[in-house]
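Lab manual, section 2.4: Encoding a predicted structure.

Procedure: take the sequence of the chain (333 residues), apply the prediction step described in section 2.3, and record the output as structure tokens. A sample record is shown.
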Amino acid sequence: MMQSKIRTVIAFFFVLTACQLQVSAQISVIKPGEVWPDNRGEHVQAHGGGIIKIGKLYYWFGEDRAKDNDPAKRYVACYSSPDLTNWTFRNKVIKTDDPANFGKGFVLERPKVFYNKKNRQYVMYLHMDSANYKAARVGVAVCDKVDGDYKYLKSFRPLGEQSRDIGQFVDDDGSAYLIFEDRAKGFHIAQLSDDYLSVEKEVCLIKAPLEGGALVHYQGLYYAIGSALTGWDPNPNKYATATSLSGPWSEFKDIAPPETNTYGSQSTMMVKVVGTKSTTVIFMADQWHPKAQWDSRYLWMPLEIGDGKLWLPKPQPWKIDVKTGEWKYVDDK
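Recorded output:
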């Protein structure tokens, strides 16, 4: 009996210690360009990613490039957060060999997940390609759970066009769009079909050589961001505006001092946080480390946006209240 009590006390002690460690691991500040630890203390592996919100949780999907991954496979990780700051690892929702027979060194990048309410299904779009980037296709995978194991369905060229970097956009009315880069023509914005499993029609072709496409609808204007075609190397990202997704779009302008090369980052998405007091638009970008991809970092910063202007402030620590939509800089010292 005494040994049983001792075991119970020891078990309670370990549970209490674990809870204390979990609480102490909570963070309140987003630090652009630094290691971003998840609930396990490991750097978040969600590169080239996208965000969706389901209920009270945000879900971040991205390329899992962990150093110990099988180099013959490709992985997509899913994380969840109630506050866009503390991220809990949920699952490697994609862990696959070459599903489309693209050959050695096949590409699986920039996962973007949409929730189709009609079919109650999560639909993931991916840039899928051969090692030489000549296939230029999108892949589609589906799952009934946001953080479940996604089943690969198919790959295709949207609207018959080349597709490399992809982005996602869900408008305020719930309509869903795929953004894809077609080196031969430009920057496509295309509406998804009712079931989200294919691309229904082109809404606009922005005739500019841009990738890393991102869109947001803010105070009656659409803002589009893209980066130049410089591979892994950063460049001055640019933006344009329009009153309609179909255009016409304004001239593209720099989002940051051009000499900074967007502070060493490349756009992947803009996240709009609508709170009770304010609306914040977050620039979500990657700082790629091509020779150590597992160590690639994230540059997230609130944008200065409105009246047709958009500007990325110099990155520094900040925090956000997702309930009110308010954010502020933090003296991290």
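Check your result against the sample. The CA atoms of residues 12 and 326 lie 39 Å apart.
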